[in-house]
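Justification of resources, computational component.

The compute hours requested in this renewal are based largely on the per-chain cost of generating structure records like the one below. Each record pairs the submitted sequence with a full structure-token output. That output is archived, and it is also reused by downstream analysis tasks.
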Amino acid sequence: MAMDLRMMQTRARILTNIRDFFRNRGYLEVDTPVLSPGLIPEATIEAFRTDFVNPFHRGRPLYMVPSPEIWMKRLIAEGTGNIFQVGHVFRNSESLGTRHSPEFTMLEWYTLDATYQDSVCITEELVLTLVQLELAELQAAGEAHLSRLLPPFVRLSMAEAFRIHARVNLEECTEAEDLAEEARKLGLTPRDDDSWQELFNRIFLTFVEPNIGRERPTILTDFPSQVATLARTIPGTPWSERWELYMEGHETANCYTEETDPEAIRRFFTSEAVQKEGALVEVEIDQDFPELFARGFPPCSGVALGIDRLIMALTDAQDIRGVIFFPVHDSLRS
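The structure output for this chain reads:
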């Protein structure tokens, strides 16, 4: 794909504006490794593996991080305060399409003494700032797509989204058998051994997600706590303090009120490690990670945002290969 100098300039400007946004609010920019000897287990993510070789040291596998979380939380545990990072991350076995790339640029930030609701406000402020700066760059000529991105974002709970788009009442489907019956009504064919989470994902990806955030950016919030993550559970409810931002119909950011209970984190590691068995790429689990929380960890909220998709929304680009230079797509097809 031919290089677009105007897009290169726009991308550089947006990255500068993102950094300025967080620096002006007192966040410390950090720079952490893309290689790690172990990972946080996530059943739905396949990793890239490489090997350290040296004639004087024992070789060992290393993994390219799917998120800088594994390093950034170590920094928070050391007392850095609010931090952010812009860097490359890697997801193996990803689709090669107009919105996907195995290597992409992620903005991740953590705000201490904040919840996922606070992070919605910060994200809206970030997008508002970037839109205003892009409109100023266009010298008021304006482009219609930018006005569609202006906050406030639509807010929709996962329970509401399932009722609207799949006619499923998640609150009444607490067992896999209940959700399997709803899947059949929708024309899906569940397997006998499908878990609740697998059934949820099939219904969500088929009937719900394709309808989210197409007209305006939408915060899809309060995910079922049965979908295992490191997000804190809302007390007394079946929901977790998690949201995803959809822009132009595609998931662009993911946020948690971070779980800080060491026992909950150990349970997550144990459960996800079992589900990782049989993964396409076997990975070493970072067994020391839960100990960060046993020593005490500050309450905080973290957001991971795909910068390439954000730039696509800001520039009305239709192919991620236009905003990623030297995309993996091209090298795989050569």
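DSSP finds eleven helices and eleven strands in the chain. The radius of gyration is 20 Å.
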